[in-house]
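cron nightly-structures :: item 1 of 1
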Amino acid sequence: MALSRLYQRPVSLGCTPASPEPLFSLRLQPGRRSPAWGPPRPRRLHLSPREDVKSLVSSFVAKTKVMNEKYNRFLERRFPRFYVMYSVFVKGFQMLLADAKKARRIKTFMSQKKVMFHQLSYRDMEHLRQFRQDMVKCLFLGIISIPPFANYLVFLLMYFYPRQLLIHHFWTSKQQQEFLDIYHARRKQSHPKILSCLEKAIPLIPNPVHQWHFTQLYIKVQNGDPPCINDLLPLRTCFSVYPLAVSHLSTAHLACYLRGLDSTHLAEDWCRFWLAQWLYFSCSLKNTEMSLLLHAVVLFSTNYPGTRHLGSC
């Protein structure tokens, strides 16, 4: 049989004959001497190695999430108490990693910008301080767990003394509320010292009108009533000069590192109202009136409605 019979030769009027198109393709298969006849196969699209790896990783992550969700539902349904401990540990470990990344970013910023610790913002300083305390606790637990079979004793100690040995990432919601109340009760012990220093500074104020306003403010706080903005703004000049300026305050007057409102037992509406009042007051002050700003946090937080304790200091 002639090979020309295997091709079609279509001819169009007034045009050159079209190129022949094969009805069958001739291909050789490995291991066979005779040619294999059949229609032409389409070419397969192959992804690049990087895209293949990405697709494999994404599919693996998706399957892992599905299995993790099923496992969590199984634990929550069959072992509810163990699930609470398991979820607290997982979430706490994730929060600890997030804090470590943030601390690393702050350290990198300090090294690149040549910034000292006291030049950081308050939130960054507080984050580094708290993270160092957490790492000290973790290091202590790691050291006492080195001897053989000591890890069982460590678990027992963590169960009976969670506030002293566990970092706050691994506290339950009930423990967080309980332990924050304990820490707040210790911090609020500085409030009487601050109010006592303010009382001693009243006779040293040269303006009699300011002395009278200051006396009324002190009596109002001592009677359990929270002061308002109008009670503090008339006294703004007193906190820019002796004896209430920051440069003239005594060491006992500056025992107060952590200040703010104890919002643990406070409703959301009261928190919003206090914050709006604080923003309005802080925007009304000048840079030279920083002492009044520091005292106002304590004065506004003390005896605030809705709180079970005094404001944190």
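cron nightly-structures :: done
The two ends are 104 Å apart (CA to CA).
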